[in-house]
Every structure is written in C-alpha cells, then in structure tokens.
Amino acid sequence: MDHPRRYVLNRIMSELENRYLSVKERIAVAAIKYERDPAAIQLLAVSKTWPTEPICELHQLGQQQFGENYIQEAVGKITQLTSTGSIP
C-alpha cells in the first residue's frame, strides 16, 4: 500500500502537470493570435512556498526558469535538487 504522503504528492504532481500544460497551451494560443512565435515567449514559474518535488517535476516537464523571493530559499532548493541529481 502506498504511503498517504506519496499519494497526496502524486495527486498534486498530476494536477501540477495538467496546470502547467494548460498554461503552456494558453501561451501558444495567445502568441498565435497576436502573430508572435510561441517559442519566443518564456514562462517564469514561481516556486516560492513549494517543496522541491513539484519543482523537480516541472523541470522534468521542460520548465527551465523559476522565481523565488529570497536568495536563501533559492540556494537551499538549488542545493537540494542538484545534490539529488534532480537537476543538472
């Protein structure tokens, strides 16, 4: 049987993936509507208050840029994610 925390994280991650893909699609539709190249538009994901697991998932989905309010929060997450091999 799965651990309850793992179940909750899996549900959050599935929802996070759906929301991420929905935002990417909305960006592409708006770009085309205004005659812009969708690839030229960059999405900045705000990762403040989120644990590293969802950040890692977004990175695996292709998200490359993340924003934090405080440098110490960013350094802690970067250190954790790089030490586990989740991000290069």
Comma- or semicolon-separated keywords:
88 residues; mainly alpha; two-stranded parallel sheet; 5% strand; globular
What this model shows, in words?
The chain has 88 residues and is mostly helical. It has one domain. The chain contains three helices and two strands, in the order αβαβα. The N and C termini lie far apart (32 Å). The model has no long low-confidence stretch (mean pLDDT 86).
Summarize the structure.
The chain has helices spanning 4-33, 52-61, 71-83; strands at residues 45-46, 66-67. It is mainly α and 88 residues long. Helix 1 packs across helix 2 (52-61).
End-to-end C-alpha gap? 32 Å
Secondary structure tally, helices? 3
Q: What is the overall silhouette?
A: globular
Main structural class: mainly alpha
Q: Sheet bearing the most strands, described? A: 2 strands, parallel
The number of domains is 1
The total of beta strands comes to 2
| Beta strand % | under 5%
Main β-sheet, spatial strand arrangement: 1-2
Furnish the topology, listing elements before pairings.
Layout: H1 4-33, E1 45-46, H2 52-61, E2 66-67, H3 71-83
Parallel strand pairs: 1-2
Helix pairs in contact: 1-2
